[in-house]
Design goal:
The structure holds two protein chains of two kinds.
Chain A: E1 2-7, E2 13-18, H1 25-33, E3 41-45, E4 48-49, E5 61-66
Parallel strand pairs in A: 1-5
Antiparallel strand pairs in A: 1-2, 3-4, 3-5
Chain B: H1 3-18, H2 33-51, H3 55-84, H4 94-107, E1 109-114, E2 119-123, E3 127-129, E4 132-135, E5 137-142, E6 151-156, E7 174-175, E8 178-179, H5 185-193, H6 197-208, E9 226-227, E10 234-235, E11 241-242, E12 249-250, E13 256-257, E14 264-265, E15 270-272, E16 279-281, E17 285-287, E18 294-296, H7 306-319, H8 327-342
Antiparallel strand pairs in B: 1-2, 2-5, 3-4, 5-6, 7-8, 9-10, 11-12, 13-14, 15-16, 17-18
The chains are: A mainly beta, B alpha+beta.
Chain lengths: 74, 350
């Protein structure tokens, strides 16, 4: 099934991707973010915070945003 | 549909018109020459400051250089990702923008859409970084300012929390109303380019909630003033002096002026002339050629301190041979001797 995955960490990209049916949020996170710790990210489905075991649906909009984004000076 | 929903719908339509829709799925890539130039410039400044021993300036420039290199690195990584991802870039539809605006109403306080001014703004909760309250901030996104597609500004809504010494810095990473984005730069650009307004406001908020001590306009450790390197008292940022010898920051009370050249110096660099006990900088004291102790120019005579000079004179007196008596002195001695002999008094030779 097709979902929109938005990764606001680093490059900040958004893409439609194919995932197997019944994929959970936690599985998608591990698949896309590797060893990154989920607690360091705001993970939302259709703009709402979700639990890791939530099962994704067709056309879901999943966004992953780091909780710590370091600004700078100048 | 309520009036506020109609307003959000109208705004979403206008914002959608502002989005640049790519004609093809071929990624457009440009090398970040701009950031590279920044790095080169910062490196040159850093080398100049370090070479001249301007330690405080070198530290500041080093922070800037680090931030510039990070931005360059992040930008290059984004280019790599773009090239590795051949799919059609995402661009939000009007419906998605409308849904973003609806979600922003729930996520933030005070969502305001001004169709006339062409702005959307939200307000963050009160932000506290490392225990220091900074108040809340309004994030104002303009979808049409002088032909630029998207500009935004950060407005401090509680000015009483700004650092008292630098009112133009309401947040460690905000200068005036500009957020220095650092790591957020690329994600913010992407979110705006693709019309992902919910993501844009979330990224900006998370950046405001994060403190990067290595690259801040005003570090939080100096938010309420600077600690004097000598006495540790907190002083206003603009009231401190820099020791012209070692670059440490000292308060007015700890800054000693050299009696000779009038330069400011900290307690460590201040030297006292052991003769007159006035304070001088190291450069204005010279060693005595005999004892090697350092004295001010006034207290040295031909390169010698007073003690060494006296000691030299004394030694010279003792080692000098006795001079022969003059004719007048001899006659006088003889006269006194005759007289003393007559009155039976002792005669003491001259």
């Amino acid at each position: 099934m097709k979902i929109l995955l938005i990764n606001n960490h680093g490059g900040g990209w958004a893409d439609f991707i194919e995932v197997p049916a019944a994929t959970t949020v936690a599985e998608l996170f591990t698949q896309k973010m590797g060893t990154a710790q989920p607690e360091n990210y705001l993970i939302r489905v259709n703009r709402l915070p979700v639990s890791p075991d939530q099962v994704l649906q067709e056309n879901d909009r999943v966004s992953i945003t780091s909780t710590r984004i370091e600004g700078a000076a100048a | 549909m309520s009036d506020s929903r109609k307003q959000l719908l109208r705004a979403s339509g206008r914002i959608r018109e502002r989005l640049l829709v790519p004609a093809t799925g071929i990624p457009t890539v440009g090398l970040p020459n701009f950031y590279w130039d920044y790095c080169v410039e910062s490196l040159q400044l850093f080398q100049r400051a370090a070479g001249r021993g301007w330690q405080a300036a070198a530290r500041d420039i080093q922070r800037r250089l680090t931030a510039d290199i990070r931005t360059l690195q992040s930008s290059l990584q984004e280019i790599l990702r773009t090239l590795d991802r051949p799919s059609t870039p995402f661009v939000a539809s009007q419906r998605e923008i409308f849904e973003d605006l609806l979600a922003l109403e729930d996520e933030f306080d005070d969502l305001e859409v001004d169709l006339k001014a062409q702005t959307i703004s939200v307000r963050t909760d009160r932000i506290k970084l490392e225990g220091i309250p900074l108040g809340s901030f309004q994030i104002v996104l303009s979808w049409e300012v002088m032909g630029c597609p998207f500009l935004y500004r950060i407005v401090a809504t509680n000015s009483e929390y700004a650092t008292p010494n630098r009112s133009e810095t309401p947040h460690p990473h905000v200068d005036g109303e500009s957020l220095c984005e650092g790591e957020a730069k690329v994600p913010i650009r992407q979110a705006l380019k693709q019309g992902r307004l919910f993501d844009f406001f979330t990224i900006v908020r998370q950046t405001l909630l994060t403190y990067n001590a290595a690259s801040a306009y005003v570090p939080l450790s100096e938010w309420n003033g600077l600690a004097c390197d000598d006495c540790g008292n907190v002083i206003d940022v603009e009231d401190y002096d820099s020791c012209e010898r070692c670059g440490s920051r000292v308060c007015c009370g700890c800054c000693s002026r050299c009696d000779d050249c009038d330069c400011c110096q900290c307690g460590t660099c201040t030297k006292t002339c052991p003769a007159c006990e006035e304070q001088f900088c190291k450069s204005c004291l010279s060693p005595c050629r005999n004892c090697d102790a350092h004295f001010c120019t006034e207290c040295l005579d031909h390169g010698q301190c007073a003690d060494c000079r006296s000691a030299d004179e004394e030694e010279q007196r003792q080692t000098e041979p006795e001079k022969p008596a003059t004719r007048t002195q001899t006659a006088e001695v003889a006269r006194v001797a005759v007289h003393a002999h007559r009155v039976r008094q002792a005669v003491t030779p001259a």
